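quick one
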Amino acid sequence: MGKDVIIACDFDSAEKTFRFLDQFTGRKPFVKIGMELYYAEGPEIVREIKRRGHKIFLDLKLHDIPNTVKKAMAVLSRLDVDMTNLHASGTIPMMKAAIEGLTRPDGTRPLLIAVTQLTSTDEETMRHDLLIERPIADVVMHYAQCAKEAGLDGVVCSPKEAEVVHSSCGKSFITVTPGVRFADGDVGDQKRVMTPAEAKRIGSDYIVVGRPITAADDPVAAYERCVREFVD
Ligand code: C5P
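structure w/ cytidine-5'-monophosphate:
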């Protein structure tokens, strides 16, 4: 599994996105397209970024009945993305249907990653809103195991959870970790953060980095610093 830095392109227009990506004249970074950009610009933004030679993590976090998710995944698979995701709380039948939909006629498919509990959900919210009484670590672990059982490739989790996901689901089960900050940088609204170097040490497979790169004075230098700390 190749370790990589994924840049979260959280922009609301194609124009802003390309103004940002045009600065990268050497290496083509792996980019994450989330709901904001996808809903603003539609599938053409995915095709155009792909044409420019970037790998794409399409972060739309699907969650619906199995048949609907299967059909939606078939459409996303034709966009030729490299990685996409869904909510593990959609249950194992939904996750299995997603894999069926995602698999192309030649047997290949994008990597499929599950969101366990969002990092914005804490134990109190789980208890009050979702009636889940267990510790959040148990819930994350259980959802990761369900994702593995359904045949998924890995989970999105906080950097702090990557080690325990690997020990329970195996080293080859991918961990994609947001919440990454430079040691001398702003934390912003992220609560549980790690530096790229720490994320490497605890065994994250991919780090997702947004504002530390997109809001930097020199985004290319910030990206290269992430790559140096995390990959090289
Ligand atoms: O700007 P920042 O580095 O905080 O961006 C992190 C990215 O990862 C954002 O696109 C955010 O939506 C995403 N993300 C996250 N925490 C999760 C899942 C996704 O921060 N649990």
